[in-house]
Design a protein that fits this description.
Number of domains: 1
InterPro entries: CoA-bd, NAD(P)-bd_dom_sf
CATH superfamily: NAD(P)-binding Rossmann-like Domain
CATH architecture: 3-Layer(aba) Sandwich
Helix content: 25-40%
CATH class: Alpha Beta
CATH topology: Rossmann fold
Number of strands: 5
Structural class: alpha/beta
Pfam family, one: CoA_binding_2
Protein name: CoA-binding protein
Shape: globular
Largest sheet: 3 strands, parallel
Length: 121
């Protein structure tokens, strides 16, 4: 999760905790807190800092829309097992989404897995 906050009152923390409760491993990416721990996982400064054997399949972006393009480009270049990119409520970049889709990655924009997953489980 890019932009995961260590603060329990932040939406990103609540979504990460929900995903963990559903059995997902959530790897935090937040340069301000790199090296710290959030929800029992070591925080990385960038997606490219995540060990290759972590098997990242989904990137959930909790950043502003103007940050999405660079995150998507890094994810496409650094995460060979990437299958899904989510951008949170109010966050979208249609050009970045097209680039990801062109590489076979599913892109869900302006949605939250904490809201959407219960609808489909």
């Amino acid at each position: 999760m890019v932009g995961l906050s260590p603060r329990e009152d932040r939406p990103s923390w609540g979504v990460a905790r929900y995903l963990q409760a559903q059995g997902f491993r959530v790897i935090p990416v937040n340069p301000t807190h790199a090296g710290d721990s959030i929800l029992g996982e070591t925080v990385h400064a960038r997606l490219s800092d995540i060990p290759a054997d972590a098997g990242v399949e989904m990137v959930d972006i909790f950043r502003r829309s103007d940050a999405v393009a660079a995150i998507v480009d890094e994810a496409l270049a650094q995460l060979p097992g990437l299958r899904v990119i989510w951008t949170q409520l109010g966050v979208r970049d249609d050009d970045a989404a097209r680039r990801a889709r062109a590489q076979g990655v599913t892109v869900i924009q302006d949605r939250c897995p904490k809201i959407e997953f219960p609808r489909h489980l």
